[in-house]
# Entry
Amino acid sequence: MCSLKSKLIQPTRLNANTTPATTMVSDINGRPVLQPATSNRSVLARCSLKKNPSLPKSPPSTLAPNAKTNKNPSTISINPNSLVKYSSAAIVDAPGSIAAERRVQVAAIQVQRKMRIAHYGRSKSAKYDSCNKLFDHNSSLINSTTTPTTTGLREEKRCSFITPTSDPIYVEYHDEEWGVPVHDDKLLFELLVLTGAQVGSDWTSVLRKRQQFREAFSEFEAEIISKFTDKKITSISSCYGIEVGLIRGVVDNSTCILKIKQAFGSFDKYIWGFVNHKPIITRYKPNQKMPVRTSKSEAISKDMVRRGFRQVGPTVIHSFMQAAGLTNDHLITCPRHLQCRRHPPSSNH
# Structure
């Protein structure tokens, strides 16, 4: 019998006559490993070799004086006391660093976001009031402490038909008369005539000729207008440039008003009786389309036509109701909406 040593050494001395079917024991890294026999000795040579990585030798000056090396050249232990320590706070908080600049940008973005939230009313917290001191219109930095809801902003929230290009006389009419409850018979008659005259035209043109209408129709005295003759009607048309058909309609309406005064006591009691002597308060929003006629205006128009009135269609009567304050059609965003509701009713003169 052969010894173990001979068995270990024998496979390493194989010759070409060895058959592939036989097995052998190879000595790899000092350990016996059972492997199949092969004629390719290069494969065995590559398997038996193992590269031991080694670190390149560094010059002695690069190591710290307290560095200790182990017997194994692949591992080197260095004394941590020999290294220079840096504070993370010194790196992050250093002025001019990227982190410091980023913190400034984030702080500015947060303040802008708080200002937008406070401006659009999503937050009523008082801690956002100080944001108004930080930003202005140009450089986002202001020194005033005014709130976003200032008087100037309210002026821009008039009714939608008032635009920056509107005529001043039209804006004045909206701010002082339109929607105010009227209880004077002569003024009610005047507004009824003006609303009929603006059919096919516009309110601005009618308001410019308002004084001419007052002179032509004798300050809207129904008793005087009802006595106009054909000669007077023709003279008024040539002097003031008013259509003859419109003048004849005003004369007929003055006669109807005299009959209403005999039946109801005044034109004011008759017309305000349709709304129970209280103005209709609507709550139209800017994104809503305001109607040009309502069921109430249709009912009033039907009754006035039955009594002999002319030029009193549902659209004209709805415009007359808005002008005389029978209905408050100011948008809820318009400051005149609340002012007309609180306006005391005018007495009949």
In short: The radius of gyration is 50 Å. The mean pLDDT is 74. The beta strands are 23-28, 31-36, 68-69, 76-77, 280-281, 327-328. The first strand starts at residue 23 and ends at 28.
